[in-house]
Amino acid sequence: MTATTELKNIINEENVVYKKTSVLLDNEMHYCPGCTHGVIHKAIAEVIDDMDIQEKTIGVSPVGCSVLAYNYLDIDWQQAAHGRAPALATATSRLMPEKYVFTYQGDGDLASIGCAEIMHACNRGESIVVFFVNNAIYGMTGGQMAPTTLEGQVTATSPYGRDCQTTGFPMRISEMLAMLPGTRFVTRESAETPGAVRKLKKAIRKGFENTRENKGISFIEIVGTCSSGWKLSPVKSNEWMKENMFPYYPLGTLKDE
Amino acid sequence: MGDIRLMKGNEVIAEAAIRCGCDGYFGYPITPQSEVMETLMIRRPELETGMVVVQAESEVAAINMVYGGASCGKKVMTSSSSPGISLKAEGITYLAGAELPALIVNVVRGGPGLGTIQPAQSDYFQAVKGGGHGDYKLIVLAPASVQEMNDFVELSFDLAFKYLNPALILTDGVIGQMMEKVELSEFKPRWTEEEIIAKSGTWATTGKTADRERNISTSLDLDSAKQEIFNHKLQAKYRAMQENEVRFEKINCDDADYLFVAYGSSARICQKAIEIARKKGIKVGLLRPITLFPYPIKQIQEMLGQVKGILSVEMSAGQMVEDVRLAVNGKVPVEHYGRYGGIIPTPDEVVEALEQNFLGE
Amino acid sequence: MAKFIGAIVVDTEKCKGCGLCVVACPTKVIELARDVNGKGYHYAHMANAAACIGCSSCGLVCPDTVITVYRTKAS
């Protein structure tokens, strides 16, 4: 058998082991090459598909790079004002308790302007899942300093490196929220390796399953990259993330009740 | 005949919401309207109709809860007072931009800033000209009695869903705090999920079923050409409101030589002023705009051949008077009389202002 | 002693050439092409097809979901 005919035999509908889920739309994503948002979107879509909850899932997108998340997942979406996604999700989940409601927020959206909304949604223990994508920078507006920007990290608004004496310290949001009685499941994940993506998908499934039981909020932080903002290639960004982000934002489950 | 009760205006807002099948109220305490949420918490509508009542962490969160609930095709509302409405302005323009129906109640107090907790009408511009950013309009209803506080809750929801646009009840601490006889509306059931899908299934985020495209509740369109087309659509909607939804009341206008234009509690004061003026032989009438947007422009213009002067009476430094002048367009003299900062004018003062401005006294 | 043989198909026009699949592949199957697609990206492709075991690692980490993975038992 020649190599070509062997390939033809393998590339056959019945041998498919991995393909795009139909919960993801065909629209090309606007994200930069290598952006973690794409992987997270896919992971969420695959879990929605696996759990067969497409008709019952409502997403709330933020302001920031993922404002257009509604162009990629084939579910009903609400697009929130900057930082306010947890408020929208609160009402949606209270008014339609049988639905699976999630917010998808970046670090500027959730950790800066939306601090009050996330804090109180967590404190009330709303039956929602929150995806918090922490890449330590404002992506959409062009790479400015975020509350999660690391000490010394160079951004457009900390061009000499973040000076914690004048700009405060990088905020560990998950640790803060895990202290609240209203949070049920708080975990910090990543998505840079196949193993990390599989683990992330498990966390997503757990989050959606928790919403059914009405016992508090599931908060899933995903440490990700922003190669455009960090001014590194996608592969180098992952290396930088492992070296610099993971020590300050350690991966793992902080709370699971 | 419905239930007849003696109730506070603010309490009636809450009761009317429960009775008209409202699905959710999201609020934050602020004087002079805190009784709205307090009444709801005492009434426990979640046990009676399933209505959800949430005390939010801020006015900002409350209006965004309204956005979330409205996106689901539910009848949702919030209430606040002036400084709180300023905080809600962002959420309100998002609601207008996403074409979502909702009810906002502003029990106005004196400003600017933290101002005072006493009644005022100084949020007229904020209500009818904008408040938030962008070219949008709210349907604005101005009750002048506790009865209208009851009636306008359901009317606001009807108009909000008819036009897919937020509606605002613009009232003040006088109407909100005073007790009057009120005939409460009959109870109406909340919409079922099937009814919501039948009514709003083309846009509401009720969960994407296989038989339709996904619904997206957003005010964003990065394509300027599309954004302009969308703005044309909004403007057409506002013109339709102007055409179809003007509401007003005329009192003693048939033989009037002079005209008061006043809304809400100022209109009540003007009614007494009319009695006093007519005893003095001054034939004055009142045109009371009930909708502040759309504004009764034609109805004011119809009086121009008849009256010699118009006095706009407001508890503000002169806001609505600008709309009166736009309608009148210089054809008869228009003056403003107002007290503000929480001071309520007396009927005698109003008559005196009419005499000073138009009767050379 | 590979028990499985695999192959991938890349939607080359949608690929943004980020190279994350290249790193993720445990058997070094994937490289970025010298050619570019319509958007100017050096798209991913199977440079060493015989080594593919159809493990889906590339598919899992691909941000643009442009990789379909096939796998069958070695004959």
What would the keywords be for this entry?
heterotrimer; A: 257 residues; alpha/beta; seven-stranded mixed β-sheet; 10 helices; C: 75 residues; Alpha-Beta Plaits; two-stranded antiparallel sheet; elongated
Characterise the protein shown here.
The complex is a heterotrimer of chains A (257), B (361) and C (75). In chain A, helix 4 packs across helix 5. Chain A has a domain at 24-135 and 173-224: Thiamin diphosphate (ThDP)-binding fold, Pyr/PP domains (Rossmann fold, 3-Layer(aba) Sandwich). Chain A is globular. The mean pLDDT of chain A is 96. Chain A contains ten helices and eight strands. Chain A has 257 residues and is an alpha/beta fold. By secondary structure, chain B is an alpha/beta fold. Chain B folds into two domains: 4-183, 3-Layer(aba) Sandwich (Rossmann fold), CATH 3.40.50.970; 248-358, Rossmann fold (3-Layer(aba) Sandwich), CATH 3.40.50.920. Chain B is built from 14 helices and 15 strands. In chain B, the strands form three sheets. In chain B, strands 3-2-4-5-7-6-13 form a seven-stranded mixed sheet, sandwiched between helices. Chain B has a five-stranded mixed sheet with strand order 10-12-11-14-15, sandwiched between helices. In chain B, strands 1-8 form a two-stranded antiparallel sheet. The model of chain B has no long low-confidence stretch (mean pLDDT 97). Chain C has 75 residues and is of the alpha+beta class. Chain C has a single domain (4-73), classed as Alpha-Beta Plaits. Chain C contains two helices and four strands. Chain C has helices at 20-24, 57-61, and strands spanning 4-10, 30-32, 44-46, 67-73. A two-stranded antiparallel sheet of chain C has the order 1-4. The A-B interface holds A 54-58, 60, 67-68, 70, 74-81, 84, 87-92, 94-96, 99, 116-117, 119-120 and B 23-24, 26, 52, 54, 56-58, 60-62, 64-69, 71-72, 74, 76, 90-91, 94, 98, 205-210, 214-220.
